[in-house]
Amino acid sequence: MKKIAVASGIIFNLCCYNAQDTLQSRNLQKDIALLSSGSSIEVKTPFFKKDWVKKSMAPAILFTAAAATWGEKENIREVRNRYLPTFKAKYDDYLQYTPALTVYGLKLAGVKGRNNLGRATLSYATSLVIMGILVNSIKYTAKVERPDGSKNNSFPSGHTAMAFANASFLHKEYGIVNPAYSIGGYSAATLTGLGRNLNNRHWIPDILAGAGIGIISTELGYFFIDKIYKNKGDNLSVLSRIQGNDYPSFLAIKLGAALGTTNFLKESELDDKKQNGFEGGLEGAYFFSKKWGIGGDISFSSFPIKPQRISLDDAEDFGEHSIVTQSMGFLGAGIGPYFSHEFSDKWQLTLKATAGYSATASGKVFIKSDSIDTPTHELPIATYKPKPAFRWNTGASLTYKFNPGLGLTLYTDYNEIKSTIRYHFSDEIKESEELDEELNNITAKEKINYITLGLRLTAYF
């Protein structure tokens, strides 16, 4: 049978080459010799199509993002503290379990998934054991303090690991039936991770690493159980995968650098003090055809302001002082048309133009010096508050698809916000009528332009 299969393959190839007038590129003598020897033709699988590469790609990206954001975790928490300092909602304690409950609800309702109930439970239990070992061994070795200072077991996030393990469980069992199950499961997991950050229980790197651990734990759990059963599912032969409409609709998590242009905060005379910031958020689009769709994003960005060093006239007594301005933060949302073009089944270009709203965070200006007799060695002198404003955004992105459902996207966006910033100075300045009149009427009309450059983990549905 092997020789017949090889012969059939050779004849088919020869026919194809004849049709294209490229028969000369085939070495017929080698094919005949191969057939005579009884050997089979080995076809090498491209690296990114190898099964283990596809399964490990998403966790690898999440672990890399956790490492990349480690040095920025304090700045990211500052954004949370300035926008939502009193946020407290314990939905994340419960939402983490909903994908797994969905699996068992569907199975008890008689909806066929990849596996029958017993095998699915065995795969799930194995995944949880692996996840528990990974999370707890790292937690009590790294001993990272939580943002709220409660314990030294912050890294990685156990809630997020559980949520993504459960989402991957739902994806494994029912993503093959309908991609909507996968989208719903991973959306619930993402909201769980976001809740851990908003509740001030975890740093962003904790959440990213927890997500990666949750996904890889489920992949390993299924890998080992599949080896025992010697196949990849009980019901694969009776399930027909729903491929969807082949439109490039997607949901994505994005993270990148934010770069202010030359006129950023120019009126406030801080344009030469701005530093490169960061951006993070969610983006998605629904396509009505292969080319056109409508989408939007919710993202936050923060720009640190470099301290300005000054020396007072009596510097011998007071030493060096720094005027410190808290970072400038924006929380924006927009919606608009999206255009997509596929160069191949692996590479996709997306263009967009959105318009929307940008909320801003108030900030403080203070003098910092070791000679200031306060616990933080800081003396507040002013506050600033940019007004919420219209935001428009345009951008382009290039996606490499590891498979039809997952891709890694390099994106760049241009953002413009026109906002008025008003400065209010401290009570000590208000006591001086001249300074109060001169300083407390200061407003700066800023044209805030910045470019973002980063990566998205893109899930298609």
Automatic annotation (TrEMBL):
Location of the Phosphatidic acid phosphatase type 2/haloperoxidase domain: 122-222
Pfam families: PAP2
Domain of life: Bacteria
InterPro entries, per the entry: OMP/PagP_B-barrel, PAP2/HPO, PAP2/HPO_sf
Record's protein name: Phosphatase PAP2 family protein
